[in-house]
Amino acid sequence: MSEPAIALTGLGRAYGERWALRDLTLELGVGQTLVVFGPNGAGKSTLLRVLATLARPQAGEARVLGKLVPKQGWAVRAKLGFLAHDPLLYRDLTARENLTYHARLYGVKAQRIDELLEAVEMTKRADEPVRTLSRGMVQRMAVCRTVLHSPELLLLDEPVANLDPAATALVSSLVGPTSGTTRVVTSHDPVGGLEQADIALGLRDGRPVLLAPASEVSAADIGALYS
Amino acid sequence: MNAVRALLRKDLLLELRAKESVPAMALFSLTTFVIFHFALDRNTVAGSLASGVLWVTLLFAAILGINRLFVAEREQGGFDAFMLAPVDRTAMLIAKACALFIFLTIVELIAVPAFAFLLLEGSILPALPGLIAVLVLANIGIAVIGTLSSAIAVQTRARDLIAPLVALPLLVPLLIASARATQPLLLSGGALSVPTKWIAVLGLYDLVFALLSYAVFDFLLEE
Amino acid sequence: MYGKGMRPLAIGTFFVLTGAFALVFFWVPADADQGFIQKIFYLHVPMAIVALGGFIAGGVMAICHLRTGNSKWDLRSYVSIHMALVLAVGALITGSIWARAAWGHWWVWDEPTLVSFLIVFLLYATYQPLRFAIEDPEKQARYASVFAITAGAFVPLNFLAVRMAQSLAHPRVLGATGGSMPSEMRITFYVSLIGMALLFITLWKYEMASKHTTAQLRNLRRRLLGDDSVAPTGRSAAPSTVLPARPKP
């Protein structure tokens, strides 16, 4: 087997004295999907932020696409797509202006923006300020932003939380199981989450309480995390 | 360099759309001139008084811009988006300082003529070449120090209070140099030449703070 | 760790400072122009110099903090600036008293050293509010260090600029370390300066020992009793915990 896309050993991240995440060791192969379950505040977002090179681990080490983060973060940033809880779009700029800004930062051609807008059926609303768009539309724009530079690894924080079924179908070719990329997805939906997972991780109070191939995990096991 | 251009274009576009800084700064300057007229009970000012009125007004107008400089980044995820991009962190410092410099220049294009029109004794025209040189050098300094102070303050709970408290003492030497350099330009008897000593001090101050900001800025962006 | 050598240091400080005051009151001749009040010089100037030294030391420690990522340096920098602030208040008050006695005003604007000192003090007065306004301890440490470095570099620049701005029309009664001082005055001044520097180091070590012990105790309790049994620290301007070391950037 080639080098794993993500390799974590004893990973820990604290905010002050509180450990938001600790003792996490796992490997994720290229092309696989890791789905992270857990109640609010369990450490899901912290894990994604560490993987996205935005937060510095205080314990253990994290290798993303073979590189140590955040030390060698510069080497992986161009290959990461991070869909955060926050859309990371400026409300007063139009959708197209936002994407143009990101395209310039990543050195992506403007043509790609049109393709993506087409793909999420947002071409008509692309020239309106983001603040006038509905939550679902903003989420679709955020998905465009995430995949703008065709990343190898997607980090998705509840990617379909605000989307109706039709919109979910639209974005799934970009960030869903069929996108063909390595993915780390957080989810609160035991059934839908397990369906797309290769590996399931359950977090509680920052500690991994469940880590197994998805085929060996039942929806009831996931439900138990929240009780 | 591409990243700086992308950031700067975004900042200017954002200001054009949201109009959060420049109009407020310009309006503030005009109002302050009116306040000075009544507070000093003078119809015209000249020399050191004129220089003082002008620089106090510009400095406090600049504080308004400094306060707003990073707010959109903080509230709308701009920091995270920028940190995710494969670009040098220093690009943010350069772009923000350039944006602030441009804002200040636009404000001065309104405020300085207004000052000449409302308060200045005599004509501003003979003073103009020297004044422009001083303004440009001072703007560079305010832009650099303002960006640094704003970046320090933006992560705090009371950023509107912290930013001026950090920025103003740091700007005192700059104010001394600018005000001293402007004094002889605004004398009622006609403009004398700009004291080169103060121009040199301004240039040196700009340079030192540019280097200092460059050295420490990266640490303000990490989580 | 910081308590080591405290006793001899404290005793030494006590003797040097007592000696300095003895020299000031019983040995050194009174200034010909100003008389007795000039003796406040031996308190005011060492305080001011040591305060500035403390500010700059805080900046150097902050550089170490950012370079190593070790929060121990942040604590050192914090204590250094904190102590320097206390001395700075003392220097401003004694300076004001001296100005009142020598020139008849509580404050004189044409004394560049005094004016520069006030500006530096105003800048550093923001240090504590800045720390207090940042809740995340790691971020607080990092931002405070950036501030300490900036302010440390600002100290000499500011003195230069303010000194240049003075017309020098006002004859300066005493150069701080002027060569024109009689040798008794110079010796007394240096002894006072050393005494003040020792006092600063003693206070710094004392505060470090106290803060460090409190933090260690907290860590120990957390380890023995579990993380949840120790009440979280409230918001504080002072570094209150030993943070996990940050790997070098």
Structure description:
The complex is a heterotrimer of chains A (227), B (223) and C (249). Chain A is built from 8 helices and 10 strands. The longest helix of chain A has 13 residues, at 135-147. Chain A starts with 5 loop residues before the first strand and ends with a helix. Chain A is α/β, with parallel strands linked by helices and 227 residues long. Chain A has helices at residues 44-51, 73-76, 95-106, 110-119, 135-147, 165-175, 190-196, 219-225; strands at 6-15, 18-28, 33-37, 59-64, 67-69, 80-83, 153-157, 182-186, 199-204, 207-213. In chain A, helix 3 (95-106) runs parallel beside helix 5. In chain B, 55% of the residues are buried. Chain B has 9 helices and no strands. Chain B starts with a helix and ends with a helix. Chain B is an all-alpha fold and 223 residues long. The model of chain C is unreliable at 173-178 (pLDDT under 50). With 249 residues, chain C is mostly helical. The radius of gyration of chain C is 21 Å and the shape is globular. Chain C has one domain (6-26, 37-207). Classes of the chains: A alpha/beta (227), B mainly alpha (223), C mainly alpha (249). Chain B binds chain C through residues 148, 152-153, 155-159, 161-162, 165-166, 168-170, 172-173, 176-177, 180, 197, 201, 205, 208, 212, 215-216, 219-220, 222-223, and chain C through 66, 119-120, 122-123, 125-126, 129-130, 133-135, 139, 142-143, 145-147, 149-150, 153-154, 157-158, 160-162, 164-165.
Q: Would you spell out the secondary-structure blueprint of this structure?
A:
The complex is a heterotrimer of chains A (227), B (223) and C (249).
Chain A: E1 6-15, E2 18-28, E3 33-37, H1 44-51, E4 59-64, E5 67-69, H2 73-76, E6 80-83, H3 95-106, H4 110-119, H5 135-147, E7 153-157, H6 165-175, E8 182-186, H7 190-196, E9 199-204, E10 207-213, H8 219-225
Parallel strand pairs in A: 3-8, 3-9, 6-7, 7-8
Antiparallel strand pairs in A: 1-2, 1-4, 4-5, 9-10
Helix pairs in contact in A: 3-5, 5-6
Chain B: H1 2-18, H2 22-40, H3 47-68, H4 71-75, H5 78-84, H6 90-118, H7 128-153, H8 159-182, H9 196-221
Helix pairs in contact in B: 1-6, 2-3, 2-6, 3-6, 3-7, 3-8, 6-7, 7-8, 7-9, 8-9
Chain C: H1 6-27, H2 41-68, H3 71-103, H4 112-124, H5 127-132, H6 137-165, H7 183-225
Helix pairs in contact in C: 1-7, 2-3, 2-6, 2-7, 3-4, 3-6, 3-7, 4-6
